Amino acid sequence: MLEDKVRDVFADMVVLKNPERTEFFSNLSLPSYMRDWLVMKFSDDNGDIDYDSVLKYIRQYIPSREDYEEFKFEMVNGETVRFLARVRVSVDIKTGKTMFELPDFGGGRAGASGEVANEVVSRWKDTLLKESENWGIVELIWGKDFSTRSAKGVVRLIEYSPFCPYTVDLEFYKDARNSFSVDEWIDVLIAAADYNPAGYDSEEQKLHVLRRLLPFAEKRVNLMELAPKGTGKSYVYQKISKRGWLISGGTVSRASLIYDNAKKIGGLITRFDFVGFDEIQSMTFVQPNQIRTALKDYMEFGEVQGFDAQVVADAGIIVLGNIDAGRFDVNKNMMEEVSPVFKESAALDRFHGFIPGWEIPRMHQGLVANGWALNTEYFAEVLHLLRDDLTYAAIVDECLDIPEKPDKRDLTAIKRLCTGFVKLLFPNAACKEDIPADEFIKYCLEPAKEMRSVIKKQLCVIDPKEFDVPGKRNIPDIRYRY
């Protein structure tokens, strides 16, 4: 039985998932990665969980945004507060101080920011300063800052413990893949992402779901998915990993997304592995032409341009939209309701692949993870670490037979998508020979070509004068190099 093999191979990195448990944590508005951490903390060897202890812990350590006003009151009255939060840390060159901000509680504008004690920075600098954001238990106090004339009050972070209670051994994960067939491994990934592999009607459906994970494992993968409502596309990008950010509706500015010239700091794409735009048909952009121009440069070159700065980033751009059943046709215009920021042909051409979300079943109870599976937090961290591994790109280069003078964007897209598929499905591969040719073609090359070809078809539909011409109409005839 696959569950038994997963428990045997991964031991401490598995948790028992079931619909009842998923609903319990969903009602608490906790993401999957935090849920699985709590499950591991409060369950026994049989997977049975002490819900009362979980609720007590959440009430004590995982506050809501509204609770922060009470925390401020307690701090200014001499108390120390301690809770779990998402933290951003930066060094202020002008003052020489290390500053923190708690974005989920309103940041500096809401008083959720201040100084970090030097001893805390020294102890956790590899965590706090090398990552754009971190989750951890923070301990805060309030006091006067007598280094200024006005002696203003300031919040100080005096203790910190990282949220992730373990170190991910990437080599162990890679080696563990050797214990599973490719069919089994697909189910391992599906369950790790919080779905029940037994709930899908075919392997093809599962593989379409796994396409959503490509930006988790490969840098700067830009995807577009159009789908009916209720297929779970938002869930994957919002709940699986703390290293991604999903913008759901509302208004988007250049400062928040790309670079804030006033604060001289990078936007969301400099802090996360991917940034998703949900309900793209209803999203509003401030100065959309300016944002489109900046995003086109970023999606092409991976650089964020400020008025006085140039910052390299590697977040993927994900566009998600709902589409009516009558429009499920890749040979017709599916871009009419997509924001003008993304549907212009020059912008659309920067997307590496398209996910036809109508091929993924609408979410139902039978698709909720049910059984022993990889801890989602652990799984997400593995994918994050795989982003920095250049071995797989070299393997893909060895596997591809590329025709002369291929379109550069087509080639980049197919190679990048292939590399992501290898990282997901064949993380144990150290060279070309480690992946059977037929499996590379079926699970990596053909899906990558298919995903890019949809983008190409849409380009021909919306801008036929530029793209529906000989030499540009089709993707390059890239084949496996035997």
Task: Give a topology summary.
Elements: H1 2-10, E1 14-17, H2 19-27, H3 32-42, H4 51-61, H5 67-76, E2 81-91, E3 98-101, E4 113-116, H6 118-128, E5 134-144, E6 153-162, H7 170-176, H8 182-192, H9 203-211, H10 214-217, E7 223-227, H11 233-239, E8 244-248, E9 251-252, H12 254-257, E10 259-260, E11 265-266, E12 274-278, E13 284-285, H13 288-301, E14 303-305, E15 310-312, E16 316-322, H14 340-343, H15 345-348, E17 353-356, E18 371-374, H16 376-386, H17 391-399, E19 400-401, H18 408-425, H19 437-462, H20 464-467, E20 479-480
Parallel strand pairs: 4-6, 7-16, 7-17, 8-12, 9-13, 12-16
Antiparallel strand pairs: 1-18, 2-3, 2-5, 3-4, 5-6, 10-11, 14-15, 19-20
Helix pairs in contact: 3-16, 8-9, 17-18, 18-19
Q: How many individual β-strands? A: 20
As laid out across the biggest beta sheet, the strand order is 2-3-4-6-5
- Show unreliable segments: none
Largest sheet: 5 strands, mixed, barrel
Euclidean distance between termini CA atoms:
35 Å
Q: What's the number of helices?
A: 20
Task: Decide which structural class fits the backbone.
Answer: alpha/beta
Strand content: 15-25%
Rg, Cα atoms, Å = 23 Å
Mean pLDDT: 90
